[in-house]
What does this fold into?
Amino acid sequence: MEDKFFTLNEVSAYLKIPKSTLYKLSETGKIPSVKIGKQLRFRKSSLDRWFSEKEANSIIYTPDAPLASQADKDSVPKTKNILVVDDDELVLRAISKLLEVYGYQIELVKSGEEALEKVKNLIFDLIIIDVRMAGIDGIETIERMREFYLSSQKALPQEVVITGYMDTQAEERANKLGIEDYLYKPFALTDFIGTVKKKLGFCSRLN
It folds into this structure.
């Protein structure tokens, strides 16, 4: 399959950093790039590898992001259950560590297939799921989960999709399903926790 190339403008908009900063990062080798003629280009495969290498350290935490205060912890109901689905062990640990600080109950699985089995036996208020995984991807996993919940007449949990890759097709599939929260890694702690709290605020379960 032919590798895709992205322009300086495209990568700058995606990473939300100035082009001048991105150019310096590429010149110093911190972000891989190539020159086609006089134009700077970024291979999709190189960006994907770069994201994977950076995810463990920067998936959530920003340098000045405060951890949960005691008031934050006290405000979180301890009965809220979250299923996190990602085939990267480092990502699972990073998200789990953060959510546990805020007092949530966490279940971790590494595939869509495992997630489908888990929801058959446990009740969850929120599903946080990665897009790209071995086997069935995150979007298809959500589709199958919804089918299960509807057929079993159980209340649907809230959903948050996370990804570290630029994939317009996956985002379009998520939009068609009405998935409102589609977060690109790395994301700021405040954005991530804010999304989690918002989703759980609207969550309801069968008694």
Residues 44-58 form the longest helix (15 residues). Residues 61-66, 202-207 have pLDDT under 50 and may be disordered. DSSP finds nine helices and eight strands in the chain.
